[in-house]
Structures are given as structure tokens and as C-alpha cells.
Design goal:
By secondary structure, this protein is an all-beta fold. It contains one helix and ten strands. The strands form four sheets. It has a three-stranded antiparallel β-sheet, with no helix packed on it. A three-stranded antiparallel β-sheet has the order 6-9-8, with no helix packed on it. Strands 1-2 form a two-stranded antiparallel ribbon.
Length: 227
């Protein structure tokens, strides 16, 4: 590009055209520098570029051991990294990952307001299923619970509606259904809330010795937010 250019970084890149010798691109020798220095930029324009010099090359591909960015990186496409990415803050599609897991949306009933909630936290990786039973005593669990939830971890909460019904959990049939019974033999009408711990992957290690998340003795890769 010409040395004097005010183009934005997102403008289309136009390779520099010169009328000089087309020398072969060769591997460069020398001693590797480990300092974080700024990348040099030529100040030679096309008109005063030496006639005897090789034609200029520009980087179509580049390799570097360490890169320090003081402000920001702009671009399109994908980034493939085999190692670990560490950052004080990570933002994707406008959502920043932090130690609390929030969602923030336009307020559904108040113009000019927003609504923010955070995820419930606890000492397990759990899922829930909730609903209402009316004139029925069987809670049919989602089919996928058979491969997602530990049946021995299931707990059930029942909230009676309109009248006392003396409700109890009669039995839990694996991860398929829960049988409810009324001790007073009246019509069943209740809300239910069922929790179960996920069985896909290792159990959460709640407390562990260490000074950072890197000291976690389990599999950190299954957690998307672990700042």
C-alpha cells in the first residue's frame, strides 16, 4: 500500500504494484528476537523504489511465536487454536463471559427498560422439568432424560392447588415417569418440579485445592465459563 494512506483497517487490501526485478522469495536467516517490537513498515513509495531491488512481497501467510495486541483485532473467518486462550474478558456476539452467567434482554413489559437474570448456581450439573398435573397421577419425563440424567439423583417437589390433597411420591420409574399418590384419595391438581443430576460427563468437583482454575483436578474442558 502507499505509505501515506488513511484507509480504515477493514478496507479491501490492494497489493502494492512495482516495476522492479521479480526475485525469488527465500527463507531468511538470522537470530530470533523475543522482544515485543512493532512491525516495521516501509516508507519508500513506488516512485522512489530502487530499480535494482527485488519486487516487494506482502504477507499472505505469517507465523509468529508470540503476539501482543495493545488494542483490538478485527477480521472475518475463523480462528483455530490448539492451545489455551486466556483473557480478562471474552465477548462473543455481543455477550461477555464472566464468573456469573447472565442473560440480558429488552424488558418484555416496560418500554425503555431491560431485564437481567443470572443462572441458578449449585454444587452439581443439574437439569429440571416442571409442569402441572390435573386429574392425573403420572409425571411423564422427557425421553432424553434416559441418557442425560442419573435416575438415583431425581428429586420431586409438589405444590397442591386449591385444596390440601396429601400428595406423596409413590415411586420413580427410572428416568421415564414419576407416580404420584393422594393420601386423602381426592382429585389431584398440583404443580411439580423435578430435578436430576446430569450423567453425561464427570461429576462436578465442588471444592479443590489450588490457586486458579488451572488447578481443577477434573476435566475443565466441559465448562464453557470458568473465569
Amino acid at each position: 500500500m502507499p505509505a501515506e494512506s488513511n484507509k480504515k483497517v477493514d478496507d479491501e487490501f490492494v497489493p502494492r504494484e512495482t516495476k522492479n526485478n521479480n526475485c525469488n522469495d527465500k527463507f531468511m536467516g538470522g537470530t530470533k528476537s523475543i522482544r515485543y517490537d512493532y512491525i516495521a513498515k516501509t516508507t519508500t513509495g513506488d516512485d522512489d523504489y530502487p530499480e535494482e531491488a527485488c519486487d516487494l512481497f506482502y504477507h499472505g501467510n505469517a507465523q509468529i511465536d508470540n503476539l501482543q495486541v495493545n488494542n483490538e483485532i478485527n477480521g472475518i473467518g475463523s480462528i483455530d487454536i490448539s492451545g489455551t486462550v486466556k483473557a480478562s474478558e471474552v465477548t462473543a456476539s455481543g455477550i461477555t463471559l464472566t464468573s456469573r452467567k447472565p442473560f440480558d434482554i429488552p424488558h418484555p413489559t416496560k418500554t425503555g427498560y431491560r431485564l437481567r437474570h443470572v443462572c441458578l448456581e449449585g454444587p452439581e450439573s443439574a437439569v429440571y422439568y416442571r409442569g402441572r398435573l390435573v386429574d392425573n397421577n403420572v409425571i411423564e419425563l422427557p425421553e432424553y432424560w434416559t441418557g442425560l440424567v442419573d435416575s438415583q439423583s431425581i428429586t420431586v417437589s409438589l405444590t397442591q392447588i386449591m385444596s390440601s390433597q396429601d400428595l406423596i411420591v409413590d415411586k420413580i420409574e427410572g428416568c421415564k415417569r414419576i407416580i404420584i399418590k393422594s393420601g386423602s384419595a381426592v382429585r389431584i391438581d398440583c404443580y411439580f418440579l423435578v430435578y436430576g443430576e446430569r450423567i453425561d460427563g464427570e461429576k462436578l468437583i465442588v471444592e479443590y485445592e489450588g490457586n486458579s482454575i488451572d488447578d481443577y483436578p477434573g476435566d475443565n474442558s466441559i465448562y464453557s465459563i470458568n473465569k
